[in-house]
Amino acid sequence: MYLARLKLVLLVLVGTLIGIACYAFVYAKGYSYLVNDPSACANCHAMNEQYSGWIKSSHHSAATCNDCHTPHNFLGKYAVKASNGFFHSFYFTTGKYPDTIQITKFDREVVEGACRHCHAAITQAIDGNNVHGTAEGIHCTRCHLSVGHSESSAVLQLPQHLRRIHERQ
Amino acid sequence: NIFERKQEARNPFYRVVELNDTVDDPAVWGKNFPMQYDLYMGTTDMQRTKYGGSEAEPRTPTQADPRSVVARSKLEQDPRLKTMWAGYAFSKDYRERRGHAYMLADQTFTERQQFNPPGACLNCHASMVTIYNQLGNGDRNKGFQAINHMKYAEARQYAKHPIACIDCHDPQNMQLRVTRPAFIEGIKTLKASQGVADYDVNRYATRQEMRSYVCGQCHVTYYFKPPDKTLTFPWTKGLTVENIIAHLDEGKIKEWEHPDTGAAMIKARHPEFEVWNMGVHARSGVACADCHMPYTRMGGLKISDHHVNSPLLKINRSCQTCHHFSEEELKARAEEIQDRFFTLRNTALDALMDLIGDIKANKNKATPEQLAKARDYQRHGQYMIDFIMSENSMGFHAPQEAERILGSAINQCRLGQLALHGGPEPSHTPAGIAEAPDKGALAGPEKTNH
Amino acid sequence: NIFERKQEARNPFYRVVELNDTVDDPAVWGKNFPMQYDLYMGTTDMQRTKYGGSEAEPRTPTQADPRSVVARSKLEQDPRLKTMWAGYAFSKDYRERRGHAYMLADQTFTERQQFNPPGACLNCHASMVTIYNQLGNGDRNKGFQAINHMKYAEARQYAKHPIACIDCHDPQNMQLRVTRPAFIEGIKTLKASQGVADYDVNRYATRQEMRSYVCGQCHVTYYFKPPDKTLTFPWTKGLTVENIIAHLDEGKIKEWEHPDTGAAMIKARHPEFEVWNMGVHARSGVACADCHMPYTRMGGLKISDHHVNSPLLKINRSCQTCHHFSEEELKARAEEIQDRFFTLRNTALDALMDLIGDIKANKNKATPEQLAKARDYQRHGQYMIDFIMSENSMGFHAPQEAERILGSAINQCRLGQLALHGGPEPSHTPAGIAEAPDKGALAGPEKTNH
Ligand SMILES: [Ca+2]
Ligand SMILES: [Ca+2]
Q1: Residue C131 exposed, middle or buried by CB count within 10 Å (0-12, 13-18, 19+)
Q2: Which stretches of chain B score pLDDT less than 50?
Q3: CA A80 – CA A77 distance, rounded (Å)
Q4: Which end of chain A is less enclosed by CB atoms within 10 A, N or C?
Q5: Do A125 and B301 touch (CB under 8 A)?
C-alpha cells in the first residue's frame, strides 16, 4: 500500500521533470534566437533592471547580454541554454520568481568565462597561474561585478535610489 | 581542461633567466619580471597614515647599529607599554613596523637583541628557502629544525636577503606556495581541530586562500615551544584569542615573569591573520593581497602591486574596486573604526595599569590566594589586550571582534583588582540563557558563495 | 528627479476616495492603496528569528486584559533584568516588541499601567494626527502639549487606531512626513548642536532621510521632561550614549531610585534610530525602510512592504537587493554579529549584578563617599547597558559601537565595586596620547560625500 503510493509519487515526479526538461529544451531553442538582441531580453519586465543598467554600463557599446551570459566555447553553449532555459521555463510554468533575482552558480561561471574571452590580453599576467583550487582561478566578478549593468559596486547592487548617491567620485 | 590549456598558451613568461630553488636573489627573478621587481623594491618607502603607514625617524648611525633611519618607537608614544612588558625584551625596544625591505636589518639591530633571541627569529625576517635546503640537505623541515636550535647570531650568518620572490613563489610556474614549516604545521593542526585530517596547504588550498596564506606565514602570533624552541603557532583549539590562551595555558607556557607582580606572562605578536579571520572581509573571501597588493596597470597588463604597504595609501586601487564611495569617505570609514577601537584600547590599558600597580602595592598585604587570582587575571587580561593591540590594523581587520576582546579584557583586569581588595566572587550568567557559539572556525572563501 | 517620476509612474493613483487630515481610518486610505493596506494589516503575523521576530504566547483572556496572545516576556527569559530595574515599572512587565498592529493594545494592557503612566505615552502607540488637531484646534503642537499633561487613562479615550497611514503620509500626495512634535523638536536640537540653526525636518530632509526619520519618531530613547512631563528626546549634545547621559545628568534627571542600592536611576528605551546612526549602513545611506520595508513585487508594481517586521524574515527582498551572497550566508552573518554581541552583553549584565549586590551588601559598612561613587557608577554603567540592550537589533545596527558601549559599561560597573572595597583611584590615559574624537555627529547620507 505504502510502496504503491510511493511509486505513484515517484512516477508523477519523474513525469513533471521530463516535462520541464522538454519545455526547457524547446525554450532553450527559442532562447538562442534572442541571442545578441538585448531588447529581446528586455521583453520581459523581469529583465528591465539589467537592461536599463546595461544601457548605462561601460559595456553598452562592448557586449550584449549573451556575450556575457552564454559561453564562448561550443561545449558549454548547449548546457547553459538548458540551464537558463530551465529557470526561464520554470518561471513560465510557475509564474514565480524571486523579487531580487540571483544568478545561478553555473551562469556565474559562464560570465567568468566571458570576461576572460574578451580580456585575455590584459589579464594574462594575473591569470596565468591557476593551479590552485578551481580552474578559473580568481573570479573577475569579485571586483568587477557591476560592469554589465548598474553603477553599483562589487559588493553591492544598490537599489536605484541609492545608486544615484553612490556613484564613484 | 580547456581553460588551463588556454592559459599555457598565453602565459607571458619571458624566460630571460632560468629560475629554480637555488636562486634566492630577487634581482635575478626581476630579470624575468621587471615590473613586479620594481614595485617590490618600493617597500623601502616610508609614508604615514593616521594610525599606520610608517614614519621615518632619522638617527645617527653607530658602530653597533648602522641604520640612519628607523620607524617610530611605540614605547615612547605610549609609556604604559613599558610597564606592561616590564622585565621582557619588548620593554626595551618596540617600534612600528615598516616595509618588507627593512625586515632583516630591523631584526638584526633591535635592542631586543640584548636578550639574545634564538635563530628561530629568522624564519620571518629573511629569505629562508635556500637556507632551509642548505641546512637540511634539501629537506626544508630538517633545515627549519636546525635554525630553531641555533643562537640568533649563528643563524644570522646564513641570511642574505629579506623576504624575496622565492619565499612566496614556485620558480617553475610562479604560483604561490607556502614555504614556512611553522605555517604548514599550524594550519594543519587548525584544520584538524575542525575535523579535517592531514591538511596539506600546498595541495588543498584554493588560489584565493593562498592570497592570504602566504601572508599568514608571518603575520600571526607565535611562541617558541619548549624544550627545543620550535617556532609554533598556537592554533590547536582554533583562532580566537580564547582558543589561543587555552592552548598556551594547557602547555603551561611562561615566557617571562612580570617583575612588578610576579605573574607568569605570555606575549602576543601581530596576529593579523587570526584577527582578519574574524572579520566580515575574510568571511566575504577578501584576501590580504586584495587590499595590500591590489592590481595595478602597467603597460598593457594588470599586475599585483608588490609594494606591500597600507591600503590607505592606495585607496583607489584597493578599496574602491569593491566600494564605490569617494576616497575621502573610505578613509574616513577606516579611521572611524580605528578611532573607536583606540578609545576602548586606552580604557583597557588604564585598567591594566591599575591592576599591575595594585598587585605591586599589595604584594605583601594580600593573601597568597588573592595574589594567585590577581596574577592569573593579569596573565589572561594582559594577553587579550596585547593580542588585539599588537595586531597592526588598529581594529580595522575585525572591528566588532576587536572591541569584544577589549571589553572582556577590561573585565579581567578589574576582577583582578577586586580579588586583591576582597571583592565578592564574580557571578556567572545563569544556565539556560543561551551562550553564543565559539568563533574558532576558519572563515574565508569557502564560506561564501563566490 | 528621475526616481520620483519613476515612482509616480509605478504607482498610478486611483482616487477612489478623497483623503485629508481628518481621515484617520487606514481602511479608508486602503481604498486608494489596497496593496499597501493588505501588507500593513500583515503586521499581526508573529514569526520568530534567532533573536528577533516575534513569538506568539497564548494566554487566557481576563476582564482586565482581553489579549489571548502576547509576546514573550523578556523578564522571564533573563531574570537579571528584574534586579536591574527593581523598583521601576519595567521590573513588573517587559516583553518583546511585535508588529505595529499590536502597539495600542500592548500599551493599554501592560502591567506597567499599574504605575499610572502619563498621556505622553500615547504619542508613539496610536494614530495621533487627528487627536493632535482635535485637542489643539488644528495646532498639532498644542494638541501634543495637551496629551502630555493628561493621565494615560484620559488620553487613551481619544485613541482609535494604532499607527496608521496618516501618521507617516501626507494625504494630498502620499509623501512621507514627520507628524510627531517630539521628533521635530529633537532633530532640531541635534542639528543645532552641529551648527545647523532652525532645522525644519519636513522642509529640509531629503527623501532618503525621511525613509528613516518617520521611524525615528518612535524608535528612539526618550524621557518625560519635568515639570510638565513633555515627551523629550535627549539629543542636545549628540546621539552617542555618552552625549545622552551628559544631557540627562545636566538636567539632573532621576526617573526612579533603585531600592537595593539607593542610586538615582535613568532608563533607556529602544534607541534604534540613535544606534543605527552609529553603523556603517546609516553611513552608507541605507534607511530603515530599505531593510524593514523593502520593495516587493505585486501585480506589475514594485511597492514598499508595509508589513514592517524583521528583515531576516525577508532576506531576498531586503539584504539581497544589495548583498550578493546567499540567503543562508546573510542570515549567518547577521547571527554571528548578534552572537558576538550577546556574549559580551552577558558579561556586562554579570558585572552589573555584582555591583548591585555589592552596594546592597555594603550599604551600612561603606562610607558615604564610597557609596556615592558606587551609585554614580551604577547610574551610568547601567544606563549604558540598558541603552544597547533595549536597542532591539541585538547589536546588528552598529556591531562595533555596540561592543564599545558594553566594554565601557563593564569598566564602570567594576569600578563601582572597587570604590566600595577601597580600591585605588582609577588612572587615566596620559595626555599627549591622542584621544579619539567624539562620535556625536549625525551619520547618514549627508555625512558621506555623495
Ligand atoms: Ca607601518
Ligand atoms: Ca519582535
Answers
A1: buried
A2: 1-11, 435-450
A3: 6
A4: N
A5: yes
H or E element in which residue A82 lies: helix A74-94
Q: Is B47:B53 a contact under the CB 8 Å cutoff?
A: yes
- Return phi, psi of residue C48, to 5°: -105, 160
Q: Do residue A128 and residue B174 have CB atoms under 8 angstroms apart?
A: yes
Say yes or no: A45 contacts chain C, CB-CB below 8 A: yes
Tally Cβ neighbours within 10 Å of residue A147. 19
Measured between beta carbons, the chain A residues lying within 8 angstroms of B301 are: 122, 124-126
Ligand 1 centroid, distance to B77 Cα (angstroms): 14
Q: How far is the CA of C127 from the centre of ligand 1 (A)?
A: 57
Residue C297 touches chain A, beta carbons under 8 Å: yes
Least confident range from A22-31, A87-96, C241-250, C422-431: namely A22-31
CA of B188 to the centre of ligand 1 (A): 30
- Partners of C225 in the β-ladder: C230
Mean pLDDT of chain C: 92
Nearest CA in chain B to A165: B325
Distance in Å, alpha carbon of A142 to nearest chain B alpha carbon: 7
Joined grid coordinates for residue B244: 589561543
Of B173, B295, B326, the CB nearest to A129: B173
Which single residue is written with the C-alpha cell 517587559? C94
Question: Ligand 1 center to residue B338 CA distance, Å?
Answer: 15
- Tell me, yes or no, if C371 comes closer than 8 A to chain B by beta carbon: no
Cβ of residue A7 closer than 8 Å to a chain B Cβ: no
CA distance C427 to chain B (A): 6
C271 inside 8 A of chain A by CB: no
| Element containing residue C230 per DSSP (H, E) | strand C230-232
Residue B335: what residue type? Answer: E
Q: Which residues of A touch B450 (CB under 8 A)?
A: 139, 141-142
* CB atoms inside a 10 Å sphere around CB C45: 15
Cell numbers of C222, please?
Answer: 526618550
Is B165 within 8 Å of B29 (Cβ atoms)?
Answer: yes
Q: Do B174 and A126 touch (CB under 8 A)?
A: no
Residue B284 and residue A155 in contact, taking contact as beta carbons nearer than 8 Å: yes
How many degrees, rounded to 5, is the angle at CA B372 between CA B368 and CA B376? Answer: 170
Report the predicted TM-score, pTM, of the whole model to 2 decimal places.
Answer: 0.92
Q: Which of A75, A115, A131, A155 to mutate to test the interface with B (most CBs of B within 10 A)?
A: A131
Phi, psi of B146 (to 5 degrees): -55, -50
DSSP code, position B95: B
**For residues B363 and B330, is the Cβ–Cβ distance under 8 A?**
no
Q: Which of B65, B68, B118 is nearest to B93 (CA)?
A: B65
- Contacting residues for C88 by C-beta, under 8 A, at least 6 apart: C255, C256, C265, C267
Sign of the CA dihedral running B251, B257, B261, B267: negative
pLDDT single digits (tens) B99-153: 999 999 999 999 999 999 999 999 999 999 999 999 999 999 999 999 999 999 9
Whether the pLDDT of residue A168 is over 60: the answer is: no
Answer whether C44's CB lies under 8 Å from C102's CB. yes
